[in-house]
Amino acid sequence: MGDFNGHNPIWGSPDINLRGQQIETLIDNHCICLLNSSNHAYFHQPTRTFHTLDLALCSPSLVIKWNFNTEDDLFNSDHFPIILSYIDNDIRYPERPRKFIFQKANWSLFSEIATITLDMVEEVSIDDAVDKVTYSTMQAADMAISKTSGKIPKIWKPWWNEECRIFN
């Protein structure tokens, strides 16, 4: 959360500036979610206009747990206080997609294990067919022996990385 000083229609600005474009690119490229509602968080006194310069960003797994709002009083500031309310409603977090280090995989073993049969794809429901093929492929990925750990190594990349620092 912070004062990003970027304008972009995505968070309610009537115009867009370079910083707003950079923030939009950061959000798109790193699967970051914007918590802001339509409430303005800044009052520009010389022009007597409202803006949204303060943004609350989070990972997709947290967006369902937080509610964004602003206070109605400026309290002698030009920024409205931001209120983030935690929502505890037992919503299950979406599972983070698995990523693999493909260059370390034993692809010949993977090809042997990942069998897609005719009966898998001749299902009445396309959803069932996709589920069966996906399951078979993921099982093969888990069983394929790599050069190092016995499986295709999985990686986890945090959503906060060096590219985020340019906005800090």
Automatic annotation (TrEMBL):
User: Coiled-coil regions in this chain?
Assistant: none
Name of a matching Pfam family = Exo_endo_phos_2
Residue intervals of the Endonuclease/exonuclease/phosphatase domain? 1-83
InterPro entries named in the record:
Endo/exonu/phosph_ase_sf, Endo/exonuclease/phosphatase
**What superkingdom does the record give?**
Eukaryota
Query: From the UniProt record, which GO molecular function terms apply?
Result: catalytic activity
Which PANTHER family does this chain map to? Answer: DOMAIN-CONTAINING PROTEIN, PUTATIVE-RELATED, ENDONUCLEASE_EXONUCLEASE_PHOSPHATASE DOMAIN-CONTAINING PROTEIN
Under which name does UniProt file this protein? Answer: Endonuclease/exonuclease/phosphatase domain-containing protein
Q: Which organism's genome codes for this protein? A: Araneus ventricosus (Orbweaver spider)
Lineage of this protein's species? Eukaryota, Metazoa, Ecdysozoa, Arthropoda, Chelicerata
